[in-house]
Amino acid sequence: MVWKEMVAKWKEMVMRWRETTLLGVSPILDELIMSSIGKEYDHLKIQMEDIISATDNFSPSKLIGRGGFGPVYKGELSLPTGSTMVAFKCLDHRSYQGNTEFWKEIMMLSKCKHENLVSLLHFCIEDDERVLVYEYAAGGSLDHYLSDAKTLKWNQRLCICIEVARALNYLHDPVETQQRVLHRDMKSSNILLDHNWTAKVSDFGLSKIGPANQPQTYLITNVVGTPGYTDPLYSETCLLTKESDVYSFGVVLFEVMCGRLCYDCSTSGELTAILVPEWKKYYDENKLHDIIFRDLKEQMVWDSFITFAAIARRCLERDRTERPTMDEILNELEVALEKQENTTFDDHLFKISKLAIPPLPYKSRKELVLRLSDGILVDGRKRWLWINEHKQINEMESATESFHTLDRVDTFTNISRFLYVRIMSTYSSYRYLVANVKTQFLSPNIAYTMNLVFKNLSRNENSQIYVPFKIKMEDDRLFRNSSVPRVREDGWATTELYQFINKNKENSFRIEFFLEGHRQESVRMYAIEGIEFRPV
């Protein structure tokens, strides 16, 4: 009994050590803590042979980056639960980060779950090797796009900053019993972007944990972080607070609007200058025009930009009590986005109205919105657009544009918005079909569902719910069953193909269809009107 009580007390001590982030205080204490907590994460462990197979034995062709922790590879990880594209972060034994940071990352990301935090999927420990396995962020890191205003437009930059602010707000002000987390190395290269341009905050090896629902200050014996991003007060006093992350995020906000990193380097890669003091000076002297990335200027709504720049400047105040909280920053960034989108939405509506076939007459903005809510044809009558009550644009591309291998084209002007539809038959000579569809007008930063719009031409109305094909999107490895159709009031049915967050007005999708053989009781024919995109 005494032994059990001693074990229980030991476990309690370990948990307290971990909660107050004693990892890194001493090598002996590190070993005690890590040996005690390691078993808690056994369910995340995988074998090195799986990693070697996924990376082709760490082939240079699979290398996608390198950080303070070590090299990062991508690869398709095949496990009994399935296959998925992932990123492997390998500990470099020459790195300044080591075993302590490795375990910190596991501890942080296994407990902190948020859509804007990178997800830790697995880890591997074999001999001296240490590998962390994350969800794969296909877009890479934000720093690679700072000077590219075509790929990363101002609207998208605002949304990315908002998503990062949400993640930091979640870390700084947790709910219930969740512990507070200070990132301690916030910078643009630690902001990853997935295939939908959704931001994912990464790299928690230097972070610190504190108790939930309590303001706290840490006394840190060694200052860590990246020059240019590190809070000057933290560097001078070794006191780490939430406001230290706020300062670093403010530097990122300035990078986003200036279109460049916060420092200059020599040709040999040595740091030669930190630009943050200069940026602050330009702002204080009302010379923002001189530092804004010129390729972004024409995309900006000035009132939106002023709101963005003002909150960025407050983040860089020397007095940490003058810096805003992450909640304040998030609110101001959302206001900046709203100002941007309200103005660009009106401009977008006027441009769309000029494309209408036939021309769209209107006398006021209110009348224009009303007419667009009824829908218009554009793009040579091959695209149908309409807006919903939330001012979000819906779009449908005609099947005559998307499908090119179906049996025939018939005129159904009495039932369709388009002049023509495609005919699909369960007795078709084409068993494998491909649809290539594009969007041109969707509202940015909205979650959309992609639907196939069709009508059953057979006499048996009950068979409307039967869909005779399987589908495969570009990201799918195998064909899957289509979803159960929903029959609308106008008689057309829709079946969902895919969901995504729209980061650009223009998107391209490739959808593969496999027709099942016709059933003995009948041969069914379907009119395919098109592929539509509706907000979720």
From TrEMBL:
Q: Which UniProt keywords apply?
A: ATP-binding, Kinase, Nucleotide-binding, Serine/threonine-protein kinase, Transferase
GO MF terms on file? ATP binding; protein kinase activity; protein serine/threonine kinase activity; transmembrane receptor protein tyrosine kinase activity
One of the record's GO cellular component terms: plasma membrane
SUPFAM superfamilies reported for this sequence: Protein kinase-like (PK-like)
Query: Record keywords: rRNA processing included?
Result: no
| Domain of life, source organism | Eukaryota
* Pfam annotation, one family: Pkinase
**Full protein name:** Protein kinase domain-containing protein
Gene3D superfamilies found in the cross-reference section: Phosphorylase Kinase, domain 1, Transferase(Phosphotransferase) domain 1
Could you tell me which InterPro entries the record lists for this protein? ANXUR1/2-like, Kinase-like_dom_sf, PP2-like, Prot_kinase_dom, Ser/Thr_kinase_AS
Q: Where is the Protein kinase domain?
A: 58-337
